[in-house]
Design brief:
heterodimer, A: 185 residues, mainly alpha, B: 386 residues, alpha+beta, nine-stranded antiparallel beta sheet, six-stranded mixed beta sheet, 9 helices, 21 strands, 19% helix
Chain lengths: 185, 386
């Protein structure tokens, strides 16, 4: 079934749309959730939450790319679930490493909330557009798909140390850009 | 004051970047000739080592060769022999780079440098692949790296000092023939960490030539026969061993079941009792079944481990050793097995369930990993270095 057909089912409030969505994007979303949660039960619950979140958002939303729309929802739900699960604890796991790396890029702002967030997102997109293709691929694989360092190293035929160094530099560049361009604290 | 949650906001990036990262990553290639064939043809590549040139006779010969070759490649002056280039310094824009060691060996160019920065600028150093040439030709580069004697956590705490040692790496597809006396035009550049356009703030050129025949004495390249380890996943067949002053590599054919699902290491000792530690590093064949195990360019340690200052050293076998005794260790990357299951087949589901049981038994630290989760598999192997 095409994305358009699945979306049409959602717009018509046909519950079979959920099954079709799960059938088509289970694997895609499962990878994202598993990369972060690393636990079958949590992953499955997160996927179920994803399908019902999509159900609640379409309509009115009509996503231009359904896979990315689902992936974003899975990502956010996984992050919330992981934070909830490990609140107050700091287990030394891959998942916490990824979140820890991303936390370094959190910035504080005082200007109008919505405007600030729009500007920040624009800065991030600009940053991605300016990156070398290889650096961008590594960055997006790590922080959007939450891939492990080992997976990225295999994908790029690089050592794990090189991947970590690459990510470290990219994070540092992005942080400086966010701080410089966004009038953030 | 509000806090921007990057982890959430990054989920909203432009779809084109997500789509791009969903595609299979293709390592840049220029020639249709298989990399494996070219790598094999370049097995007798050279290594540049300082000790060779302590002999003044050799130095005199090298100088003559250097001048001769320099002229033929258009370097009318400024081309040094290797012995002269080592420990020489170049300064640009208040930054000084001293070349401590250079290795050109079988498709990898390594440069150990000492850098001194007079300002407080946040800089990083790399080999300028667009400017660096061998025999006047640009290298067909496909990967680069920078290695510091710090853990990633040290770096996150920004403890890089104004003076530091680094090893810069550039991997490239070797030309079919380097000639007897290749000339190297090595360019290292310093860039500001926060400049996306990568405009260099300093460039440091080192021109030198070296006799291939003499240099070969300082590297070991050995084809391995009848060296294998039998594991439950299949047989690991070791093909080649190489050693140079900065790194050692062991090429091995791996069973498909071991690839992707596990991290792999070879650990053991050389005949002089030095500990050696190889990590699975990079694929050398296009079918992704033949890989290199490589030693770390600095001491071998896990990320996050606290390292004694004295332990931040090269972890390679002694060049004068007779043999290596190595044990294969594996550590599962659990998610692979789970993700490969479609969820429809009961057998696959069972695999996933077993994987989860393993995770429950050994904890969930299997990706960032703890030392205890490395498991020795198969018999030890012995690699004769002579």
């Amino acid at each position: 079934m095409t994305d358009e057909e699945i979306i049409a089912l959602f717009l018509a409030r046909e519950q079979s749309g959920i099954g079709e969505l799960a059938k088509k994007y289970s694997f895609y979303c499962q990878k994202i959730a598993w990369n972060l949660l690393g636990n079958k039960e949590d992953t499955e619950e997160c996927l179920n939450d994803t399908w019902y979140t999509v159900w609640s958002r379409i309509p009115p939303t009509v996503p231009p790319v359904l896979s990315h729309f689902c992936g974003r929802i899975t990502r956010n739900l996984s992050i919330d679930r992981l934070r909830q699960k490990y609140a107050g604890k700091r287990p030394d796991t891959h998942m916490v490493d990824v979140l820890g790396e991303m936390e370094q890029l959190n910035v504080s702002y005082t200007i109008d909330d919505q405007l600030a967030e729009k500007e920040l997102l624009k800065s991030i997109n600009d940053f991605l557009g300016q990156m070398r293709a290889e650096d961008r691929d590594i960055f997006v694989r790590r922080y959007w798909f939450m891939d492990s360092i080992a997976e990225i190293a295999g994908r790029h035929q690089m050592s794990e140390g090189s991947v970590k160094m690459n990510l470290y530099r990219s994070r540092k560049k992005l942080l400086k850009k966010l701080e410089k361009e966004g009038n953030f604290l | 004051m509000n806090k921007f949650d990057f982890s959430k906001e990054f989920g909203n990036i432009d779809s084109k970047y997500i789509h791009e990262a969903e595609e299979k990553w293709v390592v840049r290639k220029k020639s249709k000739t298989s990399y494996y064939c070219r790598a094999a043809a370049a097995c007798a590549a050279l290594v540049l080592v300082s000790v060779l040139f302590f002999n003044p006779t050799v130095q005199a010969k090298m100088k003559a060769l250097a001048l001769s070759i320099g002229e033929s490649f258009g370097f009318s002056s400024g081309v040094d022999s290797y012995s002269e280039i080592l420990n020489s310094s170049r300064t640009d824009n208040g930054i000084t780079v001293t070349l401590k060691e250079v290795v050109l060996d079988d498709g990898v160019l390594l440069a150990a440098i000492h850098e001194k920065i007079s300002s407080t600028e946040d800089l990083y150093f790399e080999i300028d692949t667009a400017e660096t040439t061998i025999n006047g030709e640009n290298m067909d580069s496909y990967g680069s790296g920078t290695y510091l004697p710090y853990t990633i956590r040290d770096l996150q705490n920004s403890c890089i000092e104004e003076e530091a040692d680094e090893i810069l790496e550039n991997r490239f597809r070797t030309p079919s023939e380097l000639g007897e006396n290749p000339s190297v035009h090595l360019v290292i550049q310093a860039c500001r960490t926060d400049e996306l356009d990568k405009e260099a703030v300093g460039r440091f050129s080192f021109d030198f030539t070296v006799s291939r025949a003499e240099m070969k004495k300082q590297t070991l390249h050995k084809t391995l026969a009848d060296t294998s380890i039998i594991t439950e996943a299949g047989t690991v067949i070791f093909k080649e061993f190489s050693l140079n002053p900065l790194q050692s590599a062991i090429t091995a054919e791996l069973p498909e079941r071991l690839l992707g699902g596990y991290e792999l290491q070879l650990r053991g000792n050389d005949s002089k009792g030095n500990k050696v530690w190889y990590r699975l590093s990079d694929a050398v064949s296009e079918d992704f079944l033949t890989w290199n195990f490589r030693t770390d360019l600095w001491g071998a340690y896990e990320d996050g481990e606290i390292i004694d200052e004295n332990a931040k050293r090269l972890a390679i076998p002694d060049m004068d050793s007779e043999y290596l005794e190595l044990q294969l260790y594996v550590r599962p990357i659990m998610d692979k097995k789970f993700l490969n299951a479609s969820g429809d087949s009961s057998e696959e589901l069972q695999d996933a369930a077993e994987t989860e049981e393993y995770a429950e038994e050994y904890g969930t630290e299997y990706i960032s990993g703890s030392e205890e989760e490395w498991e020795a598999v198969g018999e030890k192997i012995r690699i004769e270095m002579r």
